[in-house]
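Tokens in:
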């Protein structure tokens, strides 16, 4: 009976409730886009690290887990490799540069990542072939570049970096593409490690192979369940380094934690606004129906039925508005241009939709309380 009463009232006042459903739909669009923006900005910052085939990263001690500031000498690699529980290690180097295609398109700022062939950090290949040597003018490109440019396997591109005070240009051949692995908001270009050391941006003259170092070392374990145990072993056996797992490393990326806190705060405030709007609307609706509720109670309708009718009405209107908002969001997302850091993932989207549907009944609790406290005689104006 409660559902019947809720549906009949909504049906008899379709215009009013559809208009309010559109308000809920707009709130839904806003929440979903903020959530997708948080996801997109986070991925643009951490995508490579998130997909890294390693459980731990070794940093130089006392650099606050800064990927670019850390410097680990090659002499440390064997020390780390000998620790019990370590399966494989891969030195990684991070720098920045500019990719210039030969098709006349605009230059693209990229992250230059030096990897050792077949070692942790070397990305999987979706087209062409992977890096097979540690020196040579060949590169593997991030899948984002495959989507944004006309570069294909076999093409020659130019990498521009700053060495000393001069711009340096290097011709390299594209030998393959990996999946999407952005780092610090830029598509990634993967190079053989010694080539990266020669090409990377440097404050002085090119270093060649003298004093070859890595920024960090990716560590793959025999048993990923023993992360904490192996971390302690490495700390105790290898001097001058600091060990962190991948989630800790991501949190230490400059600006990442603050960025996610900001977007999550925006999302929370939007949900709070939705809660207040829904609560306020249904409270007003209930106050306008006090005489009708009084009649229902006078003829014997119990409080449980009255409350159920109000709750069903809130759920019906809220769900309709959220579904309309989700449909609008999907349509808008199809027209977004490449490069905008907005990413809709099924899990994140469903969590936000569930949260929006849930705030309807929560926001309507005030309306339920008002409805159940109506006195029949007072509502009908018959009390003395």
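Residues out:
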């Amino acid at each position: 009976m409660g559902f019947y009463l809720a549906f009949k009232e909504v049906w008899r006042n379709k215009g009013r409730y559809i208009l309010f459903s559109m308000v809920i739909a707009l709130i839904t669009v806003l929440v979903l886009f903020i959530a997708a923006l948080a996801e997109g900005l986070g991925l643009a910052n951490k995508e490579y690290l998130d997909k890294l085939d390693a459980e731990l990263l070794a940093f130089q001690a006392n650099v606050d887990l800064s990927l670019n500031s850390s410097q680990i000498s090659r002499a440390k690699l064997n020390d780390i490799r000998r620790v019990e529980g370590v399966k494989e290690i891969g030195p990684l180097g991070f720098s920045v540069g500019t990719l210039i295609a030969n098709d006349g398109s605009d230059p693209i700022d990229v992250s230059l990542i030096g990897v050792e062939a077949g070692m942790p950090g070397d990305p999987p290949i979706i087209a062409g072939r992977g890096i097979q040597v540690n020196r040579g003018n060949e590169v593997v490109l991030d899948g984002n570049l495959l989507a944004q440019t006309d570069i294909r396997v076999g093409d020659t591109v130019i990498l521009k970096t700053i060495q000393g005070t001069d711009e340096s240009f290097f011709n390299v051949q594209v030998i393959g593409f990996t999946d999407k692995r952005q780092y610090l908001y830029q598509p990634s270009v993967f190079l053989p490690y010694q080539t990266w050391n020669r090409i990377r941006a440097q404050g002085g003259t090119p270093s060649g192979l003298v004093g070859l170092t890595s920024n960090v070392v990716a560590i793959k374990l025999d048993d990923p369940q023993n992360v904490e145990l192996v971390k302690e072993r490495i700390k105790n056996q290898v001097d001058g380094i600091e060990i962190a797992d991948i989630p800790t490393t991501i949190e230490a990326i400059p600006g990442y934690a603050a960025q996610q806190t900001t977007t999550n705060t925006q999302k929370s405030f939007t949900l709070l606004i939705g809660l207040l709007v829904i609560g306020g609307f249904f409270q007003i609706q209930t106050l306008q129906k006090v005489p009708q509720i009084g009649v229902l109670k006078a003829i014997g309708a119990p409080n449980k039925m009255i409350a159920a009718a109000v709750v069903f009405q809130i759920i019906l209107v809220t769900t309709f508005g959220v579904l309309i908002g989700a449909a609008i969001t999907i349509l808008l997302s199809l027209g977004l241009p490449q490069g905008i850091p907005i990413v809709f993932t099924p899990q994140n989207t469903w969590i936000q939709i569930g949260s929006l549907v849930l705030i309807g009944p929560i926001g309507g609790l005030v309306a339920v309380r008002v409805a159940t406290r109506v006195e029949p005689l007072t509502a009908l104006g018959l009390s003395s």
